[in-house]
Specification:
The protein contains 6 helices and 4 strands; from the N terminus they run E-H-E-E-H-H-E-H-H-H. The protein is α/β, with parallel strands linked by helices.
């Protein structure tokens, strides 16, 4: 079991038939919302609701589906409408996706110091604090990611493409063709390339 460290197109598929679901995953603040927007702009239908709206932390929106957070409690009926559609599932919940379906997972990777900086700013804007040090949180994230990748590599129903957030912000043209090829869909690559916004890359790791 993975260790948790943090809290329209009709497919025509019958309920008992396996579906192919496109999943964007990763740690919180790793660029998952940006990837959701890229794929939505490219032409993939996203499963979202309007419960969590855009704010200063995510000006382009969160692209979330609230019921996904209840996967661990067995809430999976929403997958009946997910064939060849897009949904965001944080890394801690991947293990709860029903094994009878197929998944194409785009897993966002970002330098952890940047993730921590982004989380600190989010907490500050909400007048919240964390009692976990950055060093301890980074160690927990590293352990979690190691477990997630080990688990993903052993799932016969999951194909995974790891996407480097830092690289895609620097040069989206380099990685967009790989993403399109991985999904095997007729996506609008130009619209996808237009999404990464240098102005929204506000938490950078220090240059070595």
């Amino acid at each position: 079991m993975l260790k948790k460290v943090f809290g329209s197109r009709s497919s025509g598929s019958r309920p008992n038939q396996p579906r192919t679901v496109i999943v964007v995953s990763g740690l919180p603040r790793s660029g998952t919302s940006m990837m959701m927007k890229m794929l939505a702009e490219g032409g993939v239908e996203a499963l979202t609701d309007s419960i969590r709206t855009a704010d200063e932390d995510n000006p382009n929106g969160y692209f979330e589906l609230e019921v996904v957070k209840q996967l661990a409690e067995g809430q999976k009926e929403w997958l009946a409408n997910a064939d060849h559609k897009l949904v965001k599932v944080i890394s801690a919940l991947l293990e709860h996706l029903p094994p009878e379906h197929r998944y194409k997972v785009l897993f966002m990777e970002r330098q952890i110091p940047e993730i921590l900086a982004s989380q600190r700013k989010m907490l500050a804007r909400r007048n919240e604090t964390s009692n976990v040090s950055d060093a301890d949180m980074e160690a927990q994230f590293q352990e979690h990611l190691k477990g997630v990748k080990y688990w993903l590599a052993r799932q016969p129903n999951m194909e995974v493409l790891y996407v480097d957030y830092n690289r895609i912000m620097a040069d989206p043209g380099e990685l967009v063709p790989k993403i399109v090829d991985f999904l095997g869909l007729p996506l609008d690559a130009d619209k996808m390339r237009s999404v990464p916004n240098e102005k929204l890359y506000r938490n950078r790791a220090p240059s070595s």
